[in-house]
Structure formats: structure tokens, C-alpha cells
Amino acid sequence: MDFLRPASWEEALAAKAEHPTAVPIAGGTDVMVEINFDHRRPEYLLDLNRIGDLTEWEVGEESVRLGASVPYTRIMENLRAELPGLALASHTVASPQIRNRGGVGGNLGTASPAGDAHPALLAAGAEVEAESAARGTRLIPIDDFYTGVKRNALQPDELIRAVHVKKADGPQQYSKVGTRNAMVIAVCAFGLALHPETRTVRTGIGSAAPTPVRAKAAEEFLNAALEEGGFWDNGKIITPSVAKQFAELCSGGCNPIDDVRGTASYRRHAVGVMARRTLTWTWESYRGARRASEGAA
Amino acid sequence: MRVNFTVNGRPQEADDVWEGESLLYVLRERLGLPGSKNACEQGECGSCTVRLDGVPVCSCLVAAGQAEGRDVVTVEGLADFAKQRAEGGCASGACGTTLQDAQQWKAKGTDSQTGEGTELSPIQQAFIDAGAVQCGFCTPGLLVASDELLERNPNPSDADIREALSGNLCRCTGYEKIMDAVRLAAARQSEEV
Ligand SMILES: Cc1cc2nc3c(=O)[nH]c(=O)nc-3n(C[C@H](O)[C@H](O)[C@H](O)COP(=O)(O)OP(=O)(O)OC[C@H]3O[C@@H](n4cnc5c(N)ncnc54)[C@H](O)[C@@H]3O)c2cc1C
Ligand code: FES
Ligand code: FES
Fold first, then answer.
1. Quick check: do B3-74 and B77-87+114-192 share a fold?
2. Of A3, A27, A33, the CB nearest to B65
3. Any transmembrane segments, and where (chain A) (predicted)?
4. Residue A154 lies in a domain
5. Is the CB of residue A192 less than 8 Å from the CB of residue A271?
6. Are A97 and B56 in contact (CB under 8 A)?
7. B3-27 average pLDDT score
8. Mind spelling out the 3-state secondary structure of chain A?
9. Region A82-104: what's the mean pLDDT?
10. Domain residues for A281?
């Protein structure tokens, strides 16, 4: 094994181009488990810890450009206002020790259906900034990023430099089912974001299909129902029948399996419950914010 | 490969390190510092917790090469580390813990029941006084994590303590005495100032 230690992003891209089989290592919280248990013996490890830019973020007009290696702890502490869904999801990852090392770039690299960043990114709207020495930078829409179980759209010579996550324009929530609050890989998870500016709702489902997915049919139904009922303007509570149908469509958007963490039917059911709850929580907070701004006006 | 890094305030060098080796392995097997424990090697138990540039991490999940040039504090150096922090830095210029001292470090002193006769960090003393140690396997990780919590947050709520220690498993003592120990250390710390 060789340990490659690029001191800059350009050096890292050059190393990845020269050794496309090199395994990048950021926080190491996925890679080291595989090496410790001899599940993986890469020829090259490509250490990204020396590249300072990867742990930085910039808050722009529309989105946050989040460096691939920004640890979850930093996201929770610093980006709660801009990226509430991702901050909530980050807080559910493992333990403080893991959150101090692991980040979204590694979560995307692993692309596990259970990765907690994914539902939040899908719900918020995001693009993955991938780069190679040969072809430069491209932005991969998050909807196109997950291509199969633990597979993603990266080419062998590419690295993730950052993720551009849309800044929240409304309430966001993240919900996860597991046996305790810490150190739990999701049985299933659900992210939801209200986007009042475009009058849309976006979702993300974790651990209930081969890849993280959006519940698109449920989103379309809800968008139409909210529009039709004038909900965005009148700020009424969501009709129970609308919430119920949304929940059913979210369950229907799953394609889960039975495994040690839960059965397929349990996952489908739990996703429906989380969909209804996160919709209620976010909608109540949207209504609260509307009332507050009307009161102030 | 060779790894040069700082361990408990002193520069160290580890040789013949395999590229896929963990920092935990280097500490235990190459430097002879068995304080950080190896229980799961998969980040689940926290018994290998050390500070890496001040940040608590599972040393089993840090590749040895990633520690190059960085600063590691292990449980063997915790007493000196805490002392130096309390004194506001290193006045003598010879702080930290030598490898030899660290290798021989014991909580025993003249009385293994009370820890008397050894220099303990406040959190170590509190663990002994509160009876938060049984087999002791989880203790090093809990000490490093608790010490960092109290450094960051001198008056933690119970929820803060639970959260900070949520990555550390103990299979014998139960968590109540461990909570007591952290509360005790926090209370003593606030009396001092
Ligand atoms: C005990 C434990 C509990 C866990 N619990 C959770 C949990 O609750 N939720 C959850 O989502 N995850 C969990 N994980 C998994 C892991 O912590 C996350 O997936 C984390 O986001 C990985 O980030 P990392 O920086 O440590 O990745 P690494 O291990 O460094 O890398 C992961 C993968 O991504 C690739 N990679 C890393 N950076 C880049 C880059 N810039 N460009 C291209 N590829 C890259 C690597 O080659 C590797 O394939 C847990 C892990 C452990 C050990
Ligand atoms: S040995 Fe590292 S967390 Fe268990
Ligand atoms: S004292 Fe035995 S594991 Fe905690």
C-alpha cells in the first residue's frame, strides 16, 4: 500500500488522475472501518486532510458552498440557519467523535442508502462539485448523483471538492428511526423542506430503497393540493386528508428490503409516519413565521 | 513509512508503520502506550478516544499517516495536559509527558484505591471518587471525552454530558456513576474559580 499525501487540491487531482484506483480518505470513518476489518486493501490511500480548502465553506446568495471535508460538528454549529435540514441530519450521525471527523464528502463518496446527509440534500436541493485534472469541474445535480447501492456518479479520476446546497427559504426537518439517539445507522429516515419562494415541497428518503430517493409522486400531489387550497397564502392548517395521502404516497415511494435493522413493511410504514410528522412540524413553523411577519407589519 | 507527530506535548517518531495502520495501533504497538484501548476498531465504543489537534476522535479510525505533523493527547498525558491548561500554558518550556513517563503511567500511586500519591487530572480523580470505574476498559476514552467536555463547557447540563459521552460505551459500571463523576469534576472546577 502507498500513502499519498497531496498538499494541495491540484496535487490531489493529479494523484487521482495518475492512480485512479487510489481511495481518498477524509475523516476515515468509513474507509478505516473497511481497512481495519480487512474488507478493503487499496493499493493507494489518498489523504485529503492536508487540503485546507476542503474544510471551509462559503455562504452565498442562493446556496452554501460546503467544502467536502467540513466535519458534521461544524455544520451543526455554524450552518443551522442556512442549512437547517442538513444540520439536523448531521446531529443524528453516530457520536461526537465521529462527527468531529466525518463529513458530507465522505457520505457522498460512500453513497450508502442509509447515509444521513442524503435525504437532507435531496430535500434542500444541491449540486455536487466534482473535479478531475483532465476535464475540470462539473456540477452534478443531487438527483443524478446516486446511481445504485453504494454507487455514485463520480468518475475514477474525479474528486468531490464541495457541495452546493440551496439555502433554506422555509422550514426544514429531518427525522430518523433507530434504536437509540446516538450511534445509530438509520432503519429509515426522512427529510422534508418547504420552499415558500417557489411554493414547492421537496423530500428525501433514506434507507428505504437501493439509493436515497425523493418521493416525487408525493411531492407533486402535495404541491398541487397546497396550490389548489391556497394554503401558501391563507396559512391554514394542512387538511388531515391531504397529510394522510401525502404520507401514503411517501410510503409508496419506497422500495425497501428486509434486513437486520427492520423489515420492508415496517420501513414503508415508518416513512409514512415520518412524512406526516415532518410535514406537520414544518407547516406549523411556516404558519408561525407568517403570523409573526403579519403581526409585525 | 515513518510518522512524525507530537504525542502528549513531545515530538515522537514511529517507524515501520504500515500505510493502512490506524493511529490507535501506532500508539499502542509502536510507541508502547496501551492507555487508549482497542475494543471494536469500528468507531462504536469510544475506548480509543484521543485528542487530535485538540479534537476528540476515535484513534482507530484515523490513518497513521493522517497524524503526521499533528498533535495527539492520550490518556497517559491527560494529567499533565490538564495541569498545563490550569496553569495557562507551559511556563517551564519542558511540559508534556515523556514517552517513558507515559509508558509507565499508572493511576496507582501509593494507594490504588484513592489514587493518592499520583498526579491525576481533576477528571481522573473524580472518576475514582465517584466509583465510576469497574473493569476500567472504557475509562481512558471516557476520561479524554469528559475532560474535553469540561474544557469547552465548564457547567454542563445532564443532557450535555449524555451528548458528549454518547460515543463511549461502558459495559460494567453503568452510566449513572460516570455521570456523577463528570458532575463532581464540574462542581470542583467551579469551586476553584
Ligand atoms: C461508528 C460509526 C457510526 C456511523 N454512523 C453513521 C450515521 O449515523 N449516519 C451516517 O450517515 N453515517 C454514519 N457512519 C458512516 C460515516 O461516518 C459517514 O459516512 C461519514 O460521512 C463519512 O465521512 P468521512 O469523511 O469519514 O469519509 P471517509 O471514510 O474518509 O470516506 C468515505 C468514502 O468517501 C470517499 N471520499 C471521501 N472524500 C472524498 C472526496 N472529497 N472525493 C471523492 N471521494 C471521497 C472515500 O474514498 C470513501 O470511499 C458511521 C460510521 C461509524 C464508524
Ligand atoms: S476501538 Fe475505536 S471506537 Fe472502539
Ligand atoms: S468499567 Fe468496564 S467497560 Fe466501563
1. no
2. A3
3. none
4. no
5. no
6. yes
7. 97
8. CEEECCCCHHHHHHHHHHCCCCEEECCCCCHHHHHHCCCCCCCEEEECCCCHHHHCEEECCCEEEEECCCEHHHHHHHCCCCCHHHHHHHHCCCCHHHHCCCEHHHHHHHCCCCCCHHHHHHHHCEEEEEEECCCEEEEEEHHHHEEECCEECCCCCCEEEEEEEECCCCCEEEEEECCCCCCCCCCEEEEEEEECCCCEEEEEEECCCCCCECCHHHHHHHHHHHHHCCHHHHCCCCCHHHHHHHHHHHHHCCCCCCECCECHHHHHHHHHHHHHHHHHHHHHHHHHHHHHHHHHC
9. 98
10. 172-296
For chain A, what is the domain count?
1
Confidence (pLDDT) at B193? 66
Q: Give the mean model confidence (pLDDT) for residues B80-103.
A: 88
Domain spans of chain B, in order of start? 3-74, 77-87+114-192
CA-CA distance, B151 to B159, in Å (whole number)?
A: 16
pLDDT the model gives residue B19: 97
Report CB contact under 8 Å: B55, A100.
yes
Task: Indicate the CATH number for domain B77-87+114-192.
Answer: 1.10.150.120
Flag whether residue A97 sits within 8 Å of chain B, measured between CB atoms. Answer: yes
Residue to mutate (ligand 1; options A8, A21, A25, A30; most atoms within 8 A of CB): A30
A115: pLDDT strictly greater than 60: yes
ipTM reported for the complex, 2 dp: 0.94
Inside any domain, residue A176: yes
Per-residue confidence (pLDDT) for residue B115, from 0 to 100: 65
Residue A138 in any domain: the answer is no
Cell 389548489 locates to A228
B109 pLDDT more than 70: no
* Closest ligand relative to A160 C-alpha: 1
pLDDT at A296 over 80: no
Class of domain B3-74: alpha beta
The verdict on residue A60 lying in a domain is: no
Q: Is-contact B65 B158, C-beta < 8 A?
A: no
Confidence of residue A173 (pLDDT cuts 50, 70, 90): very high
**Average of per-residue pLDDT across B129-144:** 97
d(CA A105, ligand 1 centre) in Å: 7
Query: What's the rounded mean pLDDT across residues B111-137?
Result: 87
pTM of the model: 0.96
